[in-house]
Amino acid sequence: MLFIVIILILITHATIVGQWLSRFIRLSASETNHKSETVGNDEIEPLTVIVACKNEAHRLEVFLKGLARQTTSAAEIIVVDDNSTDSTLQVARLLSKQSQLKISVIANKESGKKAAIRTGIKNAQTKWVITTDADVICPEKWLESMGLCISSHADGKVGAIAGPVRIMNGGIESIDYAAMMGWAASTSLNGKTAMASAANLAIRVDLYPRNEQMHSEIESGDDVFAVHGIIENGNKVFWSHEFNSCVDTHPAESLAHLLSQRFRWGSKAKYYTHNGALITSIWVAFVAATQIVILLLFLTRFASLTEILMLWFGRAAIDIIFTKNVTKWYRIRTTAIDWLILSIIYPFQVPAVFIFGLINKPKWK
Fold first, then answer.
1. What's the number of domains the chain is made of?
2. How does pLDDT run across 140-168, given as a tens digit for each residue?
3. Could you give the maximum distance between any two Cα atoms of the chain, in Å?
4. What is the C-alpha separation between 364 and 114, in angstroms, rounded?
5. Nearest CA to 308 among 293, 323, 319, 318?
6. pLDDT digits (tens, 9 = 90+) for 323-332
7. What is the C-alpha to C-alpha distance for residues 329 and 14, in angstroms, rounded to an integer?
8. At 236, which helix (H) or strand (E)?
9. How far apart are CA 311 and CA 291, in angstroms?
10. Paired strand residues for 132
11. Rounded distance between C-alpha atoms, residue 241 and residue 183, angstroms
12. I need a labelling partner for 107 at 20 to 30 A (CA). Which of 251, 328, 349, 352 fits?
C-alpha cells in the first residue's frame, strides 16, 4: 500500500513540475522570438527607480555607481530611508548632491518597507516605477531591458513586470532561489505571475494595490502581495525573461540571516489570494512532510529502505531536471555535491519554513 502511495505522489509531482518546465521553456522561446521582432521598434518606457533602504549606508555609493553606468538612464532615483539607525539618510543626501543623476532622498514618515515603497511611488513623476534594493548589482542594460519589456506589453491592463533576480556566487542557496524564480517565471505566460522580488519589480503607478491588499499588519510581502493585489484587481503581471533584466544580489550573511529570510517567506503563505501560489505552497509542503513521515516509518521499521530511497531520490530527480534548466538560464555554476546536499536538506527545510514562518512575526531589518 505504501509503495502505491509513493508511486502516486511521484507521478503527481512529476506532472506538476513537468508543467513548470514546459512553461519555462515556452517562455524562453517566446521571449527570444519576441525580442527578435521588436528590437528597434519599441520605445523604452521611462522608469523611476525606487530604493527603500534601511541601514544601507555602506552600500549606497556602489549601488548608485551601478545606476550611473546604465545604457538608459533612470528618469529619477528616489531613495526612501526607512528610519535607519546608521548614517543612511545623510550618506544618501550627500551622494545625491555629488551625483549627475537626478536623485531625490525622502525620509519615510511611517515605518516599514511597504510604507517606504508607497511613499516613493506617490512621489514618482513617471507612469512606471521599478523597485530594487541597495545591495543589488545591476547590469548596464538593466533599465533598458526592463523598459523595453514594459513597452512590448502595451496592454492597458498590464500592472507590473517582474524581473529575474540571481543570488551571486553559486552554491545551494543560489540554486534554491533560482528554482523559485524559475517556478515564478513559469506562471507568467497568461499574465498571472505567482511571485516576484521587490529587488527587481516594475510597477505601473496608477495600478499599485490598495493599502489593505498589501497586508500592512505584517512587515514582509512588499513584492508578492503587490503582484497578487494587481492580479486580484483584474490586471496582469508578466515576466521579463531576458538575461539583461536580471539583477544580482548577495547571499545571506549568515545561517541565522538565511533562516530568518526563509521564515519571512513562509509567513506570507497564509495570506495568498493567488490560487497558483497557494496550491503550489501546499503541494510542496505536503511532499516534504510526506518524505519526513516515510523517514520516521523507516526508522521505526514500518517502511523499507527501498520505499524511502524511491521517494527521496525520485522527488530529487524530478526537481533537478527542472532546476537544471533554470540554473542554466541564470548561468549559475553547479556541482554534484550541491544537488546531493539540496536533496537531503530540502525536505526538512520546507516544513520548518512554513511552521516557523506561520507562528513567528517577521521583520524586514
1. 1
2. 999 999 999 999 887 789 999 999 999 99
3. 71
4. 10
5. 293
6. 999 999 999 9
7. 21
8. strand 236-239
9. 7
10. 51
11. 12
12. 251
Alpha carbons 329 and 315: distance in angstroms, whole number = 22
39 pLDDT more than 50: no
Measure the CA–CA gap between 97 and 103, rounded to whole angstroms.
8
The tally of CA atoms less than 13 A away on the side-chain side of residue 174 is: 21
Cell numbers of 84, please?
535607519
Span 333-360, pLDDT tens digits: 999 999 999 998 888 877 666 655 555 5
User: HSE-up of 137 (CA within 13 Å, CB side)?
Assistant: 8
**Is there a domain that residue 325 lies in?**
no
In a domain, 37, yes or no: no
- For residues 57 and 87, the answer to whether their CB atoms sit within 8 Å is yes
Residue 166 · residue 220 · CB < 8 Å: no
Instruction: Supply the CATH number for residue 48's domain.
Output: 3.90.550.10
Question: Which residue type sits at 334?
Answer: T
CB atoms near residue 363 (< 10 Å): 11
d(CA 125, CA 145): 20
Give the angle subtended at the CA of 63 by the CAs of 131 and 120, to the nearest 5°.
30
Q: Distance between CA atoms of 152 and 160, rounded to whole angstroms?
A: 13
When mean pLDDT is compared across 16-25, 128-137, 159-168, 274-283, the lowest value belongs to 274-283
Single pTM value for the model: 0.90
8 A C-beta contact, residue 138 and residue 67 = yes
Name 100's Cβ contacts closer than 8 Å, sequence gap at least 6.
Answer: 68
Which grid cell is 331?
548561468
Residue 266 burial (CB count, 10 A): 25
Q: Which domain holds residue 94?
A: 43-254
Cβ neighbours around 32 below 10 Å, total: 12
C-alpha cell at 98: 555629488
Which range has highest mean pLDDT (153-162, 234-243, 246-255)?
234-243
Confirm whether 49 is domain-assigned.
Answer: yes
Q: Quote the CA–CA distance of 55 and 125 in Å, as a whole number.
A: 26
Residue 260 lies in a domain: no
